[in-house]
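Subject: for your reference before the review

Hello V.,

The reviewers asked for a structural picture of the protein, and I figured it would be easier to keep everything in one thread rather than splitting it across files. Below is the amino acid sequence we used in the manuscript, unchanged from the supplementary table.
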Amino acid sequence: MAEAAREQDWRKPSFAKELFLGRFRLDLIHPHPLPADEDARRGEEFLAKLRDFCETRVDPAVIERDARIPDDVIKGLKELGALGMKIDTKYGGLGLTQVYYNKALALVGSASPAIGALLSAHQSIGVPQPLKQFGTQEQKDTFLPRCARTDISAFLLTEPDVGSDPARLATTAVPDGDEYVLDGVKLWTTNGVVADLLVVMARVPKSEGHRGGITAFVVEAGSEGITVENRNAFMGLRGIENGVTRFHRVRVPAANRIGAEGQGLKIALTTLNTGRLSLPAMCVGAGKWCLKIAREWSAAREQWGKPVALHEAVGSKISFIAATTFALEAVLDLSSQMADEDRNDIRIEAALAKLYGSEMAWLMADELVQIRGGRGFETAASLAARGERAVPAEQILRDLRINRIFEGSTEIMHLLIAREAVDAHLSVAGDLIDPDKSLADKARAGANAGVFYAGWLPKLVAGPGQLPLSYGEFKHEVDLSPHLRYVERAARKLARSTFYAMSRWQGRMETKQGFLGRVVDIGAELFAMSAACVRAELLRGRGDHGREAYQLADVFCRQSRIRVDTLFDRLWTNTDDLDHKVVKGVLSGTYEWLEQGVVDPSGEGPWIADATPGPARKENVHRPIR
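And here is what came back from the structure prediction:
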């Protein structure tokens, strides 16, 4: 189902796709693209207003304490136009570019990640984005002005028994004349508790005149038969309005269907191509804050006669945070600007940004807690109560943890990116390794593969990365050219490794998730190194902290190269097969004796709540904010 829903063609160039094929197309990202002057002016004006709002109207301690964003804060965001940052001005929105939308999310997310999540869920995956790409003009005229100023939207896909496997989607939308009747239960509906409009994914049964399949609908959240049965609570992002929503015989006009029947998953996946960039935006904001606190604290805190920052054990952590923050911002800005220009296909770049940003931001926050020591584990409220600066280090660790799970878990992102990375191979040789294909199909695939690989494989032997003067324009006081030569060589090595793996495992390749994950992680590091170098050169050329940017890019690339070398080693030297045997033993109870000696504090109840369609059994906790 996912294969049928993904974009099949590559109509535009893709830097990351070429990278996985062993082709380092630096020309696709260098010189670094820049926003138009008018876009930058409008973006900076809004950022100034948003910063003032965050500093004067938002109290993050109150949001954390009450586990709720105050209504007056949300009303203020509406008045500011923050609900319509990505919506075109002709519909009443601000019409910001992706670059400035992400800068705004990084800013507001640093004040309160819960507010960042609310705005992101509303615009990146809620009603505005799918309507922008797939909606009719009538739908845009009807709903976008509401989303720009007054109405909060939510995206409803996940169900109690359906996470990353949409083929099991149980919510139905049965055609009935000019309407559909929705029945089912949706879980983890971010913004669902306060939403006015919903994007709902439901399965339309196949029948005469209806092709059926997973389909997207815009649904009025106040419709009869919709009940928000629970407002969920989490270890982090305590202010988000995330719930469980039940649909019981909810009537939705056919005019509210987005796209055709059966296009729902395609709409969801396409929406996320750029929608995913909102999450790394907030990760960049988190990295900047971690760096600020690490700098201020480690300069003030002294041990053994000098600031802790000057002790190597702590200093290496600070260097990691600084260099990684620089690289994450480079990846985000580059991907966002490419999205704005629309010259490149960025489906892989956006996915890599989400994957890499969420993983590295978590590591940076963990290092900050370690740098802060016991104070890092202590809550901000407790620190304030005993007279110290209320630094919410433990909170940011909790808040960031979800980023490795939602909008595509790390494991799912590995598989999604890996599928796109090997698309060229599957296009020419897919039938050759498919055990279900006939001998005639395999023969044709073999001929096609022979032509493709005869031209492709020789190019993986040598390249500019082996020439000592390559990428000389990146050589100044600090020389970044060796890192770009490394990226070029590593890209060819990665392509050779992938080809060898496909030759070795053929149809079983899809089961080698450990291998595929490492391939993607190598690609993510190479993309980040490329983005860091290109950003450093941009800043140098503009006279904007260029020397310091080159230093940060150099340190990041050196750190990244160590990680890449380790990942290459682990492609072939690992415990994947042994791990599989142990897992089978765990599931069969072979090691159950190892669990003895503890008590289980878990409560009673099923692992997965009952989601049988039917009338609501709980009070409706839906509370639209006006």
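For the response letter, the relevant points are probably these. The chain has a mean pLDDT of 94. The radius of gyration is 25 Å.

Happy to draft the paragraph if you're swamped.

O.
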